[in-house]
TrEMBL record:
Coiled coil: none annotated. GO terms for molecular function: formylglycine-generating oxidase activity. InterPro entries: CTDL_fold, Sulfatase_Mod_Factor_Kinase, SUMF_dom, SUMF_sf, TPR-like_helical_dom_sf. Pfam families: FGE-sulfatase. It comes from Rehaibacterium terrae. This is Formylglycine-generating enzyme required for sulfatase activity. Residues 347-619 form the Sulfatase-modifying factor enzyme-like domain. Residues 31-54 are annotated as: Disordered. PANTHER family: BLL6746 PROTEIN, SULFATASE MODIFYING FACTOR 1, 2. It comes from the Bacteria.
Length: 621
């Protein structure tokens, strides 16, 4: 814009200054554009550009006002300067800072065009810019970034070196970046990335903001909203019975603001909900077990495992179910006594725990026989109870009295006894199940001997009829399993000679009635008996069975096989139709030490009778 010379030199100088101011004002749009932060979105950028155009128009209008101003030739420059500063001060006091007509910025600019070093005009301009910055700070705090950016541009146009103006520009840039972060956090939330993955989630963004600005209200509100959403989801999952998911979500909620009372309360509510649900399931499980609904009970126990916080209770109920399935609701170690229909009761039976063991002897075991292998794994899966002691003379008499059964020894009229005069076993006539190893009448508590496999089978069949339960002879696997009772050594007590009294065995300190002793016996061992001892005279084994070590051997169900090749692995009896030979297991009062080994076995015809051989029975469930 060109002006004519209007007067003296001072007036001309004023016109030149105005022209320079107009040129500077034309550059204001660039100042606004330069303050915009990089990386903004397209929509925001278009808004910014529109605001820039509006700002340019306002600044051009202000410049036009300055250009239209003509100096009053009636006033001296000093008088005019004084009037402009005064009017600028009045505008500041009234809060009119940016107005094109009578605004403080315009008035002080006119004054400084007359005298750039005028103290009052510079002070006023500083106050006006300070107020402008304050307005920008308020707009920024309220999230009005466009307004704050416009005010910052104007402040930097008039006072580009002012620290407050420059600080405002920096805050605006940071604020826009923070707004973008908050927007990104919302996108993470919409995509389900609330707290995971750790480096790309809404939680991480809020934490980053608070690390730079600890009091940022938006970020704090974001954390609160995250926690509330996760707690609500956890509670919904718990209501739906998905407690694993509820625990996962609650753990995420706890990570948002550690120590949160809201999360702790929600956790307590979920625990209470789980406990109520667990109690209901436990009740249903017990009812199902008692009603024989084992499959239903199994399914309910699986559900309980997902609900309860007490794993031990799950194992207890699973054991109860296993006991019901395998032991008719008894448990291992229980002693059962079945009533006999014709009067009295059957033998005491101990429930044996099911398990797995290695049957037979290893190749390197001292004294091993070829028929004790190959060693193989047996897994017993059908519950059973075994008689607590050998069957006694008194118990067998109950059977004879009830049935009139005639034993093998009675049919043949003879049996084998120990001959004290010769120290050998010899046949003797008239000996039956009522007699002891010497052929004398036996006491009721003595183990019954002089009974054949056929006699033993007749006895268990009678027990089955009288009790309504399934009684039978033990299988060979069941007998060895019960004899070992968890041991894997050569003998039930270990690999070497016994260092204490464990049962009725051959010891080198044993003496017969005529002071005979054993030529092959355990050294330094004396159990006080030559011949069978009354049942239960020694300590029981870990399964609660008496006399498994020594006293008398026992018939088992199996037919004899020379090896375990192709033997059953489930503990069942290995029987062939019409087999001529049966298996005898367990040591007796007269067994040599090598015959006391847990794997030892011998064969005998089913009609055999012997003073070292008795009966032990099994009851199925």
């Amino acid at each position: 814009m060109q002006f004519s010379l209007l007067g003296a030199g001072g007036r001309w100088l004023a016109v030149v200054a105005i022209t320079m101011t107009f040129g500077a004002l034309q550059d204001a749009g660039a100042t606004v554009q330069d303050t915009a932060p990089p990386g903004r979105e397209a929509g925001a950028q278009r808004g910014e550009e529109g605001e820039d155009r509006r700002l340019r128009r306002r600044l051009v209008d202000a410049t036009a006002q300055e250009a239209e101003w003509a100096p009053d030739l009636r006033m001296s420059p000093a008088e005019e300067l004084r009037e402009l500063v005064q009017r600028g001060d009045q505008a500041v006091a009234a809060g009119r800072i940016e107005e094109a007509d009578g605004g403080a910025l315009v008035l002080y600019s006119r004054a400084l065009a007359i005298d750039a070093n005028h103290a009052g005009a510079n002070a006023g301009m500083d106050r006006a810019v300070a107020m402008l910055v304050q307005r920008g700070e308020s707009a920024l705090a309220a999230g009005r970034f466009d307004e704050a950016a416009r005010l910052s541009a104007v402040a930097n146009r008039y006072r580009p070196q002012a620290p407050a103006a420059r600080a405002l520009a920096s805050k605006i840039a940071a604020g826009r970046e923070m707004a973008q972060q908050l927007s990104e956090a919302q996108r993470h939330i919409a995509a389900g990335r609330l707290v995971e993955p750790a480096n790309n989630s809404a939680l991480q963004i809020y934490r980053d903001i608070l690390a730079r600005e600890p009091g940022n209200a938006a970020a704090q509100e974001g954390l609160r909203a995250l926690e509330e959403a996760l707690v609500a989801r956890a509670q919904a999952a718990a209501e739906a019975g998905n407690y694993a998911e509820a625990d996962r979500l609650l753990a995420q909620a706890a990570s948002v603001q550690p120590g949160s009372e809201r999360v702790q309360n929600a956790g307590a509510q979920i625990v209470e909900l789980r406990q109520r649900r667990a109690q209901g399931l436990e009740h249903d499980i017990v009812i199902a077990i008692e009603g024989g609904q084992y499959e239903q009970a199994e399914a309910l126990i699986a559900q309980l495992g997902q609900v309860t916080l007490q794993e031990r209770r799950v194992e207890e109920l699973r054991t109860q179910l296993d006991n019901a399935r395998n032991y008719a609701s008894h448990k291992p170690g229980d002693v059962i006594r079945d009533p006999i229909a014709s009067g009295g009761h059957g033998p005491d039976m101990v429930v044996i725990p099911l398990g797995t063991f290695e049957m037979g002897s290893p190749n390197n075991e001292r004294g091993r026989q070829a028929n004790e292998g190959p060693r193989f794994t047996v897994r017993l899966t059908r519950g059973f109870a075994m008689s607590r002691t050998e069957i006694t003379v008194g118990q067998f008499r109950q059977f004879i009295n009830a049935t009139g059964y005639v034993t093998t020894a009675q049919q043949t009229g003879r049996a084998t006894v120990y001959d004290e005069s010769t120290g050998t076993l010899t046949e003797k006539s008239g000996v039956t199940w009522q007699d002891d190893h010497l052929g004398r009448r036996a006491r009721p508590e003595m183990p019954v001997i002089h009974v054949s496999w056929n006699d033993a089978k007749a006895y268990v069949d009678w027990l089955s009829r009288e009790t309504g339960k399934r009684y039978r002879l033990p299988t060979e696997a069941e007998y060895e399993y019960a004899l070992r009772a968890g041991s894997t050594t050569r003998f039930p007590w270990g690999d070497g000679n016994p260092d204490r009294v464990v049962g009725n065995l051959t010891g080198d300190k044993d003496r017969s009635e005529t002071r005979r002793n054993w030529s092959n016996a355990f050294p330094n061992y004396d159990d006080g008996h030559w011949g069978p001892a009354p049942v239960g005279s020694f300590e029981p084994n870990p399964f609660g069975l008496y006399d498994m070590i020594g006293n008398v051997s026992a018939w088992v169900e199996d037919c004899w096989h020379d090896s375990y090749q192709r033997a059953p692995t489930d503990g069942s009896a290995w029987v062939n139709p019409g087999c001529p030979t049966r298996v005898v297991r367990g040591a007796s009062w007269a067994s040599a030490p090598e015959q006391v080994r847990s794997a030892f076995r011998i064969a005998a015809p089913p009609q055999t009778t012997n003073p070292r051989l008795g009966i032990r029975v099994v009851r199925e469930f």
